[in-house]
Amino acid sequence: MARASRVMRSNSQRGALPPCRGRWAMPVRMAGLCGADSVVSKHAGASRYNRQESPCRNPFVPDSSPAEVVSLNALLDAAGRGERILTANRRLARQLLQAHEQRMRAAGETVWETPAILPWDDWLTAVWDAAQFAGRLPARLLLSPEQEQHLWEQVVADSPAGEALLRPAPTARLAAEAHALLQDWCLQLPGDDDRLNDDVRAFRDWAREFDARCRSHEWLPASRLASVLGECPSAFEGWCDQPCHLLGFEELTPSHRRVLSAFTQAGGRWRRVALAGLAGQAARVSLEDASQEARVVARWVRQRLEANPDARIGVVVPDLAARRAALCRALDAILVPQARRVDTDPRQRPYNVTLGLPLAQEPLVRAALQLLALASGRQPFEAVMQLLRSPHLAGWESERGQRALLDRQLRETGEPHITLARLRHFAAREDRPWHCPLLAQGLAEMERQRREWPSRATTGEWVTHFSRLLNAVGWSRGRPLSSPEYQASEAWRRTLATFATLETVGRPMSAGEAISRLRSLAAARLFQPQTPPTPVQVMGLWEAVG
Description:
The chain has about 550 residues and is an alpha/beta fold. The protein folds into three domains: about 220 residues, no CATH class; about 70 residues, no CATH class; about 170 residues, PCRA, domain 4 (Orthogonal Bundle). The N terminus is likely disordered. The strands form six sheets. Strands 3-9-8-4-5 form a five-stranded parallel sheet. α11 runs antiparallel to α18 and α17 crosses α18.
């Protein structure tokens, strides 16, 4: 069943077609070669699919009519009149809100009403909540993306096909993406009479089981929200007083059109718009490697800023996640050489990267996860030493010298792993120069809290135990938090709250399972601290839409 993890190598962006006959296809625009509705296989050398031959039945086609071009001022005027601006992504909504704020400040305003500028998915959720409150839709629990993913993992793990998978979680993630694409394109699952290979059959069975569990518990997956609202025009009552402007949508999928059709039936008005661009010239530059490319981009950005300090510059990187570190090093070296210092305030950088980093990589959050892991059992030596040097544990400012000596002493032991009890024993040695009384006290409190942990508990109960343990050891109290660190701590608390909600769709789990699940949530959540507006925006290809 190893093939089951390969069938769903989907494009991570919503808008591609689901698997048909065991392969993956997606609609692409090829100007001058074929229509916008053409379907080309993602696999190199594979032939095009015919819709009539596909077991995935789709009676709809996407809308690719051109959007109406408007100026930014005209769009902000519409927002000022109370009209809604629905964006294709959060970055675009954030940029429009910042532009509106700058406009109000330039006009001398000190207080103003927040305009209705929000991403499409947030609008659907708001419509759903209002319709539920008004009783226009049956009472159902709208699952969060994290709850939905957790349910998918259980479905895959509980299936015969899932038993053969070494890592069911990534396969479940791909299955969830494929299922969401089915909803976006209003496609049906293949039937029992369709000719399917083992991979597509496994996905079909998982999707059926997922849907069955949602029906039996009256859960609504977020991926089905548009489908439900598209079948209930009455859900949009109270939302039709102002027209909606759709910004950043390259084309409208059948799911979009269903929602907008219901919105229109309820009396709503909408149009798809695109911001007027600036005239410019394109140039192609050939360079030796990616490192040289990053340096050339950084020098080009600097030249632009020196020529016009008020310029707004966008740097679009198709594979931003893979090239982020190298590009940021080049930008720091050329734009802000002082950024090489450890204590440099990130807000001094004239650029902002729209793609955040996994929350689990933030030093403050990483320390919390390392503390929980240490409480659950012995940990690799380097992980414990990293925790020992963390400035986010109580007593760090007064004991950092002794903790450095403790680090050296433990390294001399040559132990590959260290337990909580072993670390506390060394830290509590009063007759040694590496004595760390505050650290030893915190570790002793950790041991006491650890003894109160049950063998299995719900995620909500684990949140209580984890929070008590972190508070006992003095997590986040080593020194005053900077603004980004404070935002990271708030993001961590929101992650704990999300983790607690998994008990709705999950089963009780052990401490190790709970910590692993919490770590996965923190790794999946991208964290980007809020910073003042910057002249340079570094963004991925899809974030650049609009």
